[in-house]
Amino acid sequence: MKLLEYNPHRRALLKTAAGAVAALACPLKGWSSQQNPDRLIAAPTSAPLVLDFGPPTEVWAFNQQVPGPLLRYRQGDTLRLKVDNRLSMPTTIHWHGLRVPVGMDGVPWLSQEPIAPGQTFHYEFELKDAGTFWYHPHFASSEQVGKGLSGVLIVDEREPIEVDRDIVWMLDDWRLNEHAQIVPFGANMRDASHNGRLGNVVTVNGDIGETFMVHPGERLRLRLINAANARTFALQFQDLEPWVIALDGHPINPVRLENDQAVLGASQRMDLIIDITGAPGDITQVIDRAFGPNQAYELKRLVRGARALAGKAGQPEPARLPDNPVSVPTLTGAKRIEAIFEGGAMGAMRGATINGEFKTIRELVNLGKAWSTNGMVPNDVHFDPPQFTLELGQSYIFELENRTVWEHPIHLHGHSFQILSRNGKKLTEPVTRDTVLLQPEERSEIAFVADNPGKWLFHCHILEHQSAGMASVIEVVQ
Ligand code: C2O
Ligand code: CU
User: Fold this and answer.
1) Which of 39, 94, 308, 326 could disulfide-link 138, Cβ–Cβ 3.0 to 4.6 Å?
2) Which strands sit side by side in the sheet containing 435-438, from one edge to the other?
3) 255 and 177 in one domain?
4) CB within 5 A of ion ligand 2: which residues?
5) How many whole angstroms separate alpha carbon 186 and alpha carbon 195?
6) Is the CB of 413 under 6 A from ligand 1?
7) Which class for 341: exposed (0-12), middle (13-18), buried (19 or more C-beta within 10 A)?
8) pLDDT at 233 over 70
9) Do 279 and 370 lie in a common domain?
10) How confident is residue 187, by pLDDT bands cut at 50, 70 and 90?
11) Is there a single domain that holds both residue 163 and residue 264?
12) Residue 459 reports pLDDT greater than 90
């Protein structure tokens, strides 16, 4: 097996090499139990990421599963989980996209003391919003998330929706060597100043299996989660015509995919409704085109079973899901704040301020930093003083400007925001999300009510950009 270099056609190569297609028996392998665990144990283990094309990969995982246990609740429930740290370094858990009290947000020092090796932390909070979310550590995020610490968290709507199956695909990528082992993490300024740590192996729900069985006549809800450190996905479903019903957990008016592609920047989610048309035995390739036509590859193949189902496909277009109780910003009285992102390779940034001192780009690189927000680079620990101070209850419009030649999925903790415009063009319908994927040189206005008191991280979810300085703190004060 050769996994030496980034090779988008890896699957095809592996397949011809072995002469067989690995069948994925069950889409929710390891996720059969709907009983939530009461404990997440973060520890080293191994996982068959490449199936029998190579040895198991040494990973870090929750409860020895990659991805971690599927957590599933109903809207309004209270999550109660103990987290045991059996790693060699401190950790935390951040509940990505969930609007939780600041003490439960899992950002080391900002919201809690990191959980030391051998220690346990108890997380408990109410699940206000329904939708598709995920969880991951927020300590040494690039390494911990990159080694496999992440899992799915679903909050079901109070009323179930009309589908035949509800399926999750957690998308991830890994940088593996020829023995299928994770290439060590360490200061890598090339990754940090370009597009992050891209992997050479892409997995769905923790392995490279290609086949996904479907049945003509069924209506699926497919929840896509991008858990990769840096990779953007742009999935095409060929003959199938999915509707998008939610972004980052929050409902939108159901709409067909824009440009036929499901685009997910790092950390983003998308809920699709897919009616399986076609005849028994037909195959639909799901192609990832995020890196252009020359690097497109087959992520999955939907293989139709021998029997058609008298399912819900062909029923009228799905209805909009009930909105989550997110405060709606008042745009007329909103205060405006600019956030300008600079830096990275081929950028114009000459330097920035860190710990109160201006440093040239060369000096910053020596400190492992490559990015700034409004000319500031945070120190890694306390992020003091917070870069933005907001008044509790006030509406804000953040004018984001990406002055770099790289994509950045910008994520805000503790709040969900509306995207109002992109490059000065108003969106026909505002979209509520927790992460906005900024294209190179793109501007976007986002709006939200600062209704959650505390100090919240505001950062790029390309985890190597985050650790190289693309992060700031927004404090919401009474
Ligand atoms: Cu997915 Cu700051 O987090
Ligand atoms: Cu970034």
Assistant:
1) 94
2) 388-391, 471-477, 454-460, 408-412, 435-438
3) yes
4) 408, 460, 462, 465, 470
5) 16
6) yes
7) buried
8) yes
9) no
10) confident
11) yes
12) yes
Rounded Cα distance between 205 and 185, Å, is: 22
- Ligand 2 center–CA 466 separation, angstroms: 7
Q: Which ligand is closest in space to the CA of residue 372?
A: 2
Task: Please name the residue whose Cα sits nearest to atom 3 of ligand 1.
Answer: 96
Verify whether ligand 1 is closer than 6 Å to residue 465 (CB atom): no
C-alpha of residue 249 to centroid of ligand 1, in Å: 15
Residue 291 shares a structural domain with residue 376: no
Report the share of the chain in percent with pLDDT over 90: 88
Closest-lying ligand 1 atom to the alpha carbon of residue 459: 2
Q: How would you label 401-431 residue by residue, b for 16+ Cβ within 10 Å and e otherwise?
A: bbbbebbbbbbbbbbbbbbbbbeeeeeeebb
| Count of domains forming the chain | 2
Residue range 61-88: average pLDDT?
97
Over residues 377-394, mean pLDDT = 89
Same domain membership, residue 260 and residue 152: yes
CA of 408 to the centre of ligand 2 (A): 4
- With tokens 């790092």, the residue in question is 266
457 C-beta closer than 6 A to ligand 1: yes
Give the domain extent around 117: 3-304
Instruction: State if residue 304 touches ligand 1 by the CB under 6 angstroms criterion.
Output: no
Q: Which atom of ligand 1 is nearest to the CA of 457?
A: 2
210 and 277, same structural domain?
yes
Distance 163 CA to ligand 1 centre (A): 30
Please report the DSSP string for 327-342 in residue order.
Answer: PPP-STTPEEEEEEEE
Same domain, 147 and 11: yes
63 and 193 fall within a common domain: yes
Q: What is the CATH number of the domain that holds 92?
A: 2.60.40.420
pTM of this prediction exceeds 0.90: yes
Please say if the pLDDT value at position 30 is more than 50.
no
Quick: pLDDT tens for 244-300: 999 999 999 999 999 999 999 999 999 999 999 999 999 999 999 999 989 999 999
Answer yes or no: is 315 within a domain. no
Quick one: pLDDT at residue 379? 82
